[in-house]
Specification:
The complex is a heterodimer of chains A (about 525) and B (about 350).
Chain A (H helix, E strand, L loop, with lengths): L2 H10 L2 H4 L3 H36 L6 H25 L7 H25 L8 E3 L2 E5 L4 E6 L4 H4 L7 E5 L2 E2 L2 H9 L6 E8 L2 E8 L1 E3 L7 H17 L5 H24 L3 E3 L2 E3 L11 H8 L1 E2 L2 E2 L2 H32 L5 H13 L6 H12 L5 H4 L4 H25 L3 H10 L3 H12 L1 H16 L3 H5 L9 H11 L5 H27 L11
Antiparallel strand pairs in A: 1-8, 2-3, 3-4, 4-5, 4-6, 6-7, 9-10, 11-12
Helix pairs in contact in A: 3-4, 3-5, 4-5, 4-8, 5-8, 9-21, 10-21, 11-15, 11-18, 12-15, 15-18, 16-17, 18-21, 20-21
Chain B lengths: L2 E10 L2 E11 L4 E5 L6 H9 L6 E6 L2 E2 L10 E4 L11 H11 L4 H15 L14 H13 L5 E5 L7 H18 L2 E6 L2 H7 L2 E6 L2 E6 L1 H6 L4 H6 L6 E10 L2 E5 L4 E4 L1 H8 L4 E6 L4 E3 L5 E10 L3 E8 L2 E8 L9 E6 L5 E3 L12
Parallel strand pairs in B: 3-8, 3-9, 6-7, 7-8
Antiparallel strand pairs in B: 1-2, 1-4, 4-5, 9-10, 11-12, 11-14, 12-13, 14-20, 15-19, 16-17, 16-19, 17-18
């Protein structure tokens, strides 16, 4: 075929020639669904059957493979429905009924297939579950035993039909709470039931049995969920998908933040719900915040302002020191050729990857010795702000130097040469021409350094004694250590208090960070 | 300001940038450094600017030896290929920067910048930033910045390469005019031989870190001293073919297996003295398609250039580029007869690649 012919043939394909018959579409949908099922089964097998045993061979205790296996099996039906529905989505807006019919049919087929698999392998709704092997019903007096499986756990414990269960140990239960408690129990766990037999109050300990319970009607809710899910997938606009994934991933984080914020303004929380002393919704208070400024939390007396100032000065000093040293070192590494440059570069990278925590003890010894030096020792040794700052700056430098070198590398040589020829000294070129051009980099590194300094815990905590030098994170830890019982709402308030300056800082810096610099160079250099 | 380069050598480790370069540039002269990429022309320029320090040799501005003088103390202006404008400064600040560094009074700075900006035709752009300007405008700002401090020497590093073809033509004329007007000694690095030919008073052709020739443009064109110069200067490039020149019956004949050409007496004489083959060069405009021609060839490609057609004619294994009037519509594959203007041919030594006709 000629080149011309090849190009022409493609152009001749008309849209309706692409669309296939319903049977073909259904087969394609099922095939896609099956393939995704197989892939996830394979993944589950890989985690539980290959990687897990390998870890076990090395006597490594881990739950990661188990979690991944469960995750793969949990996602399995949904991935299959999505895969199948992706075929139907082609017709969503052109032939809605065809799309729906196709998607629902394939979903039902896949659902049945998955259910058969679950039935065969005792998985999912067919998995054996904890049971006391008796039938219960909710009555006004309590949970009434309606029937008892012969030879089962209840019979062994000598429960009788007509007993009315009121409590497990001392916790009063209704049927829902009872079932929840039961479903969370492990095999052979003792449940001490309080019940009424006639008018007599009695106690028996029933041991939980795990029984296979294959009830087909348990599939019904699953089918409804599958069908609703499929319909949503068919009509979901494609561009929403990234947002849905994003929201899904962010939700746990956001819930955490919500809790912190809610907790600081309430006496007590149950989940995200603030409660007052009578377990009713409410109980809002500013006391958590007030006590920070008053300086007394559960008997621990303190003054927040010096602590805040320590935090702030560590962060600010660190920011400036890191920026100054990194940018100058980065400039030298980017622009100058000197013996050992390559070694220095690779060594810096290694240092960046080095777990700094392991250096705590050697550095402690170094700082202790430094303390012994007359004059300087009082400023840079152990238990001095200078010593802490020095160590923290040093830990931040490898990243900073690399980052700065990268930014300087991106400035064309011509820019610098031009400045030199225009009459600037090298120092002035660096200060007036180069630094302004890497401002986004300086800001990014500055923010890293500031946040690093602001949140610094391990180094200030290790190299200082007493509260004289403690910053907010160290104080937070003290608060948890020295109050009992710990008032977590109070701790949350201190945590949020610590966040405020970062928050303000970020709001202002973000604009600069997003500001992409308009370049004045063109072409290569 | 006279610029004197004596035996300049610049090495980067073991890599030779320029070797043993000697050039004497007169006051007010416009000199172009011409050569392919990596020939050492930019290295030379940056050494003149003081960015690189010479490994050996001497550079003098006037009578002053500047080998160890810092760039800022050389009083030079430079225009870069990338323009190298400072993106965080406005056009005004960019042009004023050299004056600011010279600690010129603020009001004089204003005056000078406005003056230069008006000459460059960018007087209305002073508040803009480089990122908001077009390539041509950026180029003018860069030129203005180089000129504002009234430099003794102006250096250009391929300043027009990033402009579109039309703008390049305009800027070419403007720079040349400006240079003549101001009379500032200028050194212009380019790989574009048209730029070099049209703008420069003299061209220094460089290759592989060595100076090949330093001469006026028409001299380079009509009397190339090396085969490299002959091939590099002129567009379309000179045709080369290996021939043997012999004397028979008091006439000189250049021969290959397929060609047999009679050479004029003065040109043939030098070439005939050689044993064996020499390289014969002939420019495209010196070959005509003519019925009276004695060389039969076949047209391989016709490239219309508008004013004329560039035609590639194959004669056996040899390929000759020539220019033909557009009036005759030649077609690829057509057989033609060629006529060489043997009064204009060049001969080069195949070993040394030096001209046999024009000894240095």
């Amino acid at each position: 075929m000629t080149l011309r012919g090849a190009l022409f043939d493609r152009a001749k394909i008309k849209p309706d020639e692409v669309s296939a018959s319903v049977q073909q579409d259904l087969i394609e949908a099922l095939r896609l669904g099956l393939i995704s099922i197989l892939i996830l089964l394979l993944a589950a097998f890989l985690f539980s059957g290959v990687i897990g045993p390998l870890f076990a061979l090395g006597s490594v205790e881990e739950t990661v493979t188990d979690v991944l296996t469960r995750l793969a099996l949990l996602a399995l039906p949904f991935v299959a429905y999505i895969a199948a529905a992706s075929v139907a989505r082609r017709y969503t807006w052109s032939d809605t009924s065809k799309a729906l019919g196709l998607a629902l049919t394939s979903t039902i087929v896949l659902f049945l297939l998955i259910s058969v698999g679950a039935y065969a392998f005792d998985y999912g709704v067919f998995a054996p579950r904890p049971s006391l092997q008796m039938t219960l019903s909710q009555t006004e007096a309590g949970i009434r035993v309606e029937a008892i499986v012969p030879g089962g756990a209840a019979e062994t414990a000598e429960m009788q039909v007509g007993d009315v269960i009121t409590a497990i140990r001392r916790d009063a239960v209704d049927l829902a709470a009872f079932n929840l408690r039961l479903s969370q129990s492990e095999e052979d766990a003792p449940l001490r039931l309080r019940f009424l037999r006639g008018d007599e109050e009695m106690q028996e300990t029933v041991r939980v049995a795990i029984v296979s319970d294959k009830q087909i009607r348990a599939l019904l809710p699953g089918l409804v969920i599958a069908l609703v899910f499929t319909v949503v997938i068919v009509f979901l606009p494609g561009q929403w998908a990234p947002y849905i994934a994003l929201i899904g991933l962010l939700t746990p984080l956001l819930i955490g933040y919500f809790w912190v914020i809610i907790a600081t303004f309430s006496y007590r929380t149950e989940g995200l719900v603030p409660l007052d002393s009578k377990d009713n919704f409410g109980g809002f208070t500013l006391e958590n915040w007030e006590s920070i400024f008053v300086g007394n939390i559960a008997g621990l007396e303190f003054n927040i302002w010096p602590i805040l100032m320590t935090s702030l000065s560590i962060a600010v000093i660190m920011t400036f020191a890191v920026l100054l040293v990194s940018s100058m070192a980065g400039y030298a590494l980017s622009r100058m050729n000197f013996p050992g440059r390559r070694f220095f570069l690779s060594f810096t990278l290694i240092l960046h990857g080095f777990p700094a925590i392991t250096l705590l003890i050697p550095i402690f010894i170094v700082l202790l010795r430094l303390r012994g030096i007359p004059l300087i020792g009082q400023h840079i040794g152990f238990n001095t702000a200078g010593g802490i700052a020095m160590v923290m700056v040093a830990f931040q430098l490898p990243l900073g130097v690399w980052l700065m070198k990268g930014f300087f590398d991106n400035i064309p040589w011509d820019m610098e040469r031009s400045a030199l020829i225009d009459g600037a000294s090298r120092w002035r070129t660096y200060w007036e021409i180069l630094l302004p051009q890497i401002r986004p980099g300086l800001l990014a590194l500055g923010i890293f350094a500031f946040i690093g300094g602001w949140n610094a815990y391990i180094i200030p905590a290790t190299y200082s004694i007493g509260t004289g030098l403690s910053n907010l994170p160290v104080f937070l830890n003290e608060l948890i250590d020295e109050t009992a019982p710990v008032d977590w709402n109070q701790v949350a308030a201190v945590g949020l208090f610590q966040l405020i300056p970062i928050f303000i800082f970020f709001i202002f810096a973000q604009e600069y960070l997003l500001n992409i610099y308009a370049g004045g160079t063109k072409g290569s250099s | 300001m006279k610029v004197t380069i004596d035996n300049l050598t610049k090495k980067f480790g073991d890599v030779v940038g320029v070797e043993d370069l000697t050039l004497h540039i007169d006051d007010g002269e416009f000199v172009a450094f011409l050569g392919p990429s990596g020939c050492g022309k930019t290295t030379t320029l940056l050494t003149l600017a003081g960015i690189y320090k010479p490994t050996e040799g001497q550079i003098r501005f006037g009578e002053r030896v500047v080998n160890q003088v810092q760039p800022k103390d050389r009083n030079i202006g430079m225009v870069f290929q990338s323009y190298a404008l400072y993106p965080h400064m406005t056009v005004f600040q960019n042009i004023a920067y050299p004056l600011k560094l010279k600690k010129v009074a603020k009001n004089i700075q204003h005056e000078r910048v406005e003056q230069v900006a008006n000459v460059m035709g960018i007087g209305n752009l002073l508040d803009r930033r480089p990122g908001q300007l077009s390539g041509g405008q950026q180029q003018r700002v860069a030129l203005g910045r180089a000129l504002v401090k009234e430099p003794d020497v102006l250096l250009f590093d391929e300043p027009l390469s990033n402009l579109d073809a039309r703008l390049r033509l305009t800027m070419r004329g403007e720079i040349k005019h400006l240079q003549k007007d101001l009379g500032i000694t200028s050194i212009y690095v380019t790989h574009d031989q048209v730029e070099a030919m049209t703008m420069a008073d003299r061209i220094a052709v460089m290759n592989g870190g060595h100076l090949q020739a330093f001469d006026a443009p028409d001299e380079l064109y009509s009397r190339p001293k090396t085969q490299f110069v002959a091939g590099f200067v002129g567009n379309p490039p000179m045709n080369f073919v290996s021939v043997e020149v012999s004397r028979s019956n008091g006439r000189f004949v250049a021969e290959t297996d397929l060609l047999r050409l009679e050479v004029g007496g003065d040109r043939g004489e030098g070439a005939a003295g050689y044993n064996g083959a020499v390289v014969m060069g002939i420019r495209p405009e010196d070959i005509q398609i003519s019925g009276a021609g004695d060389i039969a060839g076949e047209i391989f490609i016709v490239e219309p250039l508008g004013r004329e057609d560039l035609i590639d004619v194959r004669v056996g294994p040899h390929s000759f580029l020539l220019l033909a009037s557009t009036e005759t519509q030649y077609q690829a594959g057509e057989g033609v007869k060629l006529k060489f203007d043997m009064e204009k041919v060049q001969f080069f030594d195949p070993q040394t690649e030096k001209s046999i006709l024009w000894q240095q």
